[in-house]
Amino acid sequence: MKRIIVSVCTAVLIAGNVGLNAYAAEEPEISAKSAVLISADTGEIVYSVNCNQKLPMASTTKIMTTLLCLESGNLYEEFEVDGNAIMVEGSSMGLQKGDIVTKYALCCGMLLPSGNDAANATAVKLAGSLENFAVMMNDKAKELGLSRTWFVTPSGLEGEGHGSSAYDMAILAREALKNDIFREICSSPTIKLEFGNPPYTRWLKNTNKLLTMYDGVYGVKTGFTDEAGRCLVSACERDGVDLICVTLNDRNDWNDHMAMYDYGFATVHNIQLDIPENLSMNLAGAEKDRLSLTAGDEPVAVTAFSASSEDFEYKVISAPFVYAPVKAGEETAQLSISYNGREVRRIPLYAEEDAPVKIIKKSHKKISILKK
Fold it and tell me: How far is 33 from 231, CA to CA, in rounded Å?
């Protein structure tokens, strides 16, 4: 008996090998205008409703603003917030004119209490103006392949054309969660910070109630405006199975996410990847010009829906060459594992054998001196 997965989104075709539990799982009935559940590893769509429809996404926009802030570096350097930038309506982390903050504090202010003041302060700090920062946001969106996304504001307050799709937001969250600091912040129910003038201790509370409502949830971001309705991006991991869920314009988002996760954990499975053998890289200054590599003995498993181990691509990431001497077991490269053009994981590669320096033998030719 074949089970047919019905979805308005036509981006992904569902194929066999989904595991026996997929046949017993009941698809959830949800109230979202747009929704998607994906594998955090492969990006495969597990369940969707209108997942490619562009809609306003409210404060889930701050996922992009926070990611750009974290990638800019110098996270703990203190500076004074722009007094004009923080004069904005809506949710706030409590910034006032003259406050001394760090970029890290602004990231916490965006992801937990969903501070529009933190988002604007970030934009001005990184780009000089909200308009220039929107250019940075859209450049990053293009880099990530978010084809139905357009940013106008750093906070998610509506601007003309500002919007995204559930699938694009899931892929954005997937990228952001690769950043360890992002993941640590968005998974925290509360965070203790110091900021102000002079800085003093504050506690910020996360608006994402799903963190304590459903086992395994570790993020990501809530959102609401009158136009966008309730928006929610979340991520959940159980027993090595990692999923990301997005709903846009959903009056029942907490329950809908839990129902989608119930379906997802009953449907997806972990597969062990077959790491290629005979991996190597260029070697200089040794007897041989190639160094054999190994990924070690640890198995590599990923969360998959319809993918099988044969569907993954592998590429050695390394310097142009490594210089001898190299010891066996020394990390010299990485293996990039991709599915459908998106990197799933990177794992270290180690020298499989010693590569000593090549010994150059000196010539001892006898020179005869002729005397007249």
Answer: 10
pLDDT above 70 for 11: no
Annotated catalytic sites, by residue? 59, 62, 114
Residue type, 170: A
For residues 117 and 83, the answer to whether their CB atoms sit within 8 Å is no
Contact 306, 44 (CB under 8 A): yes
DSSP 353: S
CATH number where 303 lies:
2.60.410.10
Structure confidence at residue 368 (pLDDT): 56
Tokens 């050695």 belong to which residue? Answer: 316
Percentages helix, strand, coil for the chain, rounded to the nearest 5? 25, 30, 45
Domain count along the chain: 2
304-331: buried (b, 16+ CB within 10 Å) or exposed (e) per residue? bbbbeeebbeeeeebeeebebebeeeee
pTM score of the predicted model? 0.87
Q: Which domain holds residue 76?
A: 23-267
Contacts of 231 (CB under 8 A, 6+ apart): 57, 58, 59, 60, 222, 223, 224, 247, 248, 249, 250, 253
Q: Kindly tell me if the per-residue pLDDT of 275 is higher than 50.
A: yes
Q: Give the mean model confidence (pLDDT) for residues 106-116.
A: 98
d(CA 332, CA 327): 10
